[in-house]
Amino acid sequence: MVEFSNFMYDNQIRVNVRMNYSVFRSLLFNIALMISFLYIIARIKPFREGFKSRPLFFAYFCLNASLLSILCVTFPLYKNNDLVFDIRCNPIIILGMVQGFPAAALGALISELYGMAVRGGLYGFGMVSNDVISAVLGGVFYSINRTRKGKSSILSSFTIPVLFCTSLIACIKDYLIYKYFVPAGSEFIHEMGGIIPAADFASIFIIGVVIKDNIRLFQHNRSLREDAVTDQLTGLKNYRYIVNKVYRLIEDEGKKYKYISFVMLDIDRFKNYNDTFGHIEGNNVLKRLSAILLDSVREGDIVARYGGEEFLIILKGVNIKGAYNIAERVRKNVYDMSANFSDSLNKTHITISAGISCYPVQGNDARELIRNADKALYCAKERGRNNVQIYDIEDTSFYSAAANEENRF
Q: What's the CA gap between 344 and 281, in Å, rounded?
């Protein structure tokens, strides 16, 4: 009888070892699946180059996190007639950290519906509570980040501690559920002991580190792309941005806006000013002018340094009259600013000339509209400087005034 009991005990140990091995093997498979999936979606072009709208990014991230959670449900760590263990909560936590509680709740709902469809009665209180806890904690982290920095950033020093606390809470919850709410005859839960909580922690921690590194790389690349289209002196968009974005503006947004006005501005006799007062003072003038331009437009408008002392403003949804009023306000503000700029400027005033063209009245292509605004600018130079001119296709003086500038295009 004793020998039979020892045999049964040894056999049970072998069964438990095989179960433990199977769980950890499934865990490694799930982690590899997550990392591979995240790598693939991170390499998709819209994710690498950035989305044009926040709703599009929200939908993209929700969809992929939900798919990743469904994959975790499809390939669980362990499954029998009474119990199912998986790590589908990790994508839900990550989704909450990046997009907030509503997105995490949506991802959890999709995961739950899929789980109920494929597992039926196996989906119980424990499964639902895991998703709820994951969505809430991810949303709390997102809220803390927005409170601290004014915008969501997963690259916070709190990322790994939050993941650790999340896994710890999940472990405590799992232990209580396994201890007091498991069905009769499910002794496997108690024999597994800390295997499932350890799997929870390991998976959440590893995926958290991978996510953090990938998003750091993503944000670094985005910063490099932003630097590539930013003028280092003034902080405005540069000529590269004009070539890459502005030249496609009418094609991309022409149907969205009834009018799009182009304003070209140039500082009058800036070379003489540089020769007289030096390039440091000249750079200060460019910075002050840039600040005035930014203060004069709305958030969605474009202000770029076209080259040297020449600037381009693009006013979306603004007609010729509105563009003229803005250009005149800028011209007067620059003149008033120069009077108090520095002691050396008390002897002279800085002035600007400006030219305006408007879509679709004076052109249907961004290159053509910039060229016409530039012709109007040089007509303003011909007419005494320190004024604003609107391009007129029937006025031949625009062509004679800009004749020497055609080679610039």
A: 9
Closest CA to 365 of 303, 326, 409, 321: 409
Q: Parallel, antiparallel, or unpaired: how do β-strands 310-316 and 302-307 relate?
A: antiparallel
* Domains of the chain in sequence order: 2-228 (1.10.1760.20), 239-408 (3.30.70.270)
CA dist 209 and 144 (Å) reads: 19
Band (pLDDT 50/70/90 cuts) for residue 13 is: very low
Grouping H, G, I as helix, E, B as strand and the rest as coil, residue 185 is coil
Residue that wins the pLDDT comparison between 154 and 352: 352
Instruction: Give 370-373's long-range contacts (Cβ < 8 A, gap of 24+).
Output: 370/242, 370/246, 370/262, 370/264, 370/312, 371/409, 372/262, 373/262, 373/263, 373/264, 373/312
Average pLDDT over residues 99-110: 81
- Distance, CA of 319 to CA of 193 (rounded, Å): 72
CA-nearest of 266, 230, 235 to 353 is 266
- Locate 408 and state its tokens: 């610039």
Torsion of CA 298, 301, 303, 304, to 10 degrees: 160
Question: For residues 115 and 92, what is the distance between their CA atoms, to the nearest angstrom?
Answer: 14
Helix (H) or strand (E) holding 161: helix 159-180
- Retrieve residue 12's tokens: 């049970």
Q: In 3-state terms, what secondary structure has residue 390?
A: strand
Is 383 in contact with 392 (CB distance < 8 Å)? no
Q: Is 310 helix (H, G, I), strand (E, B) or coil?
A: strand
